[in-house]
Write a structure and sequence with these properties.
Blueprint: E1 2-4, E2 9-12, H1 22-26, E3 32-38, E4 44-48, H2 58-62, E5 69-72, E6 77-79, H3 80-85
Pfam family, one: Fer4_7
GO molecular function: iron-sulfur cluster binding; metal ion binding
Keywords: Iron, Iron-sulfur, Metal-binding
């Protein structure tokens, strides 16, 4: 089933993230942080704090790792699974 997003959010693929923090540094609303945990490659990965994303996409463009960041804008139509993984 598909749903319309009521607010924007960002998903970080922790296994793709190498912890460079470029997304954190460029986020204009400070909704990203570095995790205390490690991914399977031994990197501290970036995490979304859970609220406040505007969907601007600056983090996506700053990230050097293709596929590590997905930005979902308010009003987008997505599968319900996207929300359960957020």
């Amino acid at each position: 089933m598909q749903v319309t997003l009521q607010k924007a959010f960002v998903k970080i693929d922790k296994e793709q993230c190498k912890g460079c923090t470029l997304c954190i540094e460029t986020c204009p609303v400070d909704v990203l942080k570095i995790s205390d945990r490690f991914n399977s490659r031994g990197y501290h990965y970036t995490e979304y704090v859970g609220d406040g994303c505007t969907g601007c996409g600056v983090c996506f463009y700053a990230c050097p790792e293709p596929g590590a960041i997905t930005v979902y804008k308010r009003g987008a139509i997505v599968d319900e699974e996207v929300l359960s993984e957020a």
